[in-house]
């Protein structure tokens, strides 16, 4: 079952992420990816309506940490229909595309307006 992230409609969203190298067999794991050559993108799709939303991706120091943030402003999430959204992160360099496992963003109705 995919990981699930909960957010209330109209709230800000910021997901801190780190890209890790997939080491060859027998190699050391835990090395963050150099993002100077890999461009991360994130898109999510509503499970029922098919509506697609491209998320903002901000890369920190691309050479050092492999860290980036996926975000959406409150005014953006306020327009999202409630329900289950499927998302993944795609990394692209000049000739290679790699995607993460799918994860779920569950958008809930906001109580306080």
Q: How would you describe this structure to a colleague?
A:
With 113 residues, this protein is mainly beta. The protein contains one helix and eight strands. A hairpin with a 7-residue loop joins β4 and β5 (67-72). The longest helix is centred in the C-terminal third of the chain and has 4 residues, at 74-77.
Radius of gyration: 16 Å
Number of strands: 8
**CATH architecture group name:** Sandwich
Fourth-tier CATH superfamily name: Immunoglobulins
**Gross morphology:** elongated
Characterize the main sheet. Answer: 8 strands, mixed
Number of helices, counting only DSSP H or I runs of 4 residues or more? 1
User: Roughly what percent helix?
Assistant: under 10%
CATH topology value: Immunoglobulin-like
- Mean pLDDT across every amino acid position: 87
**Sequence of secondary-structure elements:** EEEEEHEEE
Q: Tell me the name of the CATH class.
A: Mainly Beta
Return the structural class: mainly beta
- List segments where confidence is low: pLDDT < 50 over at least 5 consecutive residues: none
Distance between the termini: 32 Å
Strand content: over 45%
Could you give a quick summary of the protein structure above?
By secondary structure, the protein is mainly β. It has one helix at residues 74-77; strands spanning 4-8, 13-18, 39-46, 52-59, 67-72, 83-92, 97-99, 103-108. It has one domain: Immunoglobulins (Immunoglobulin-like).
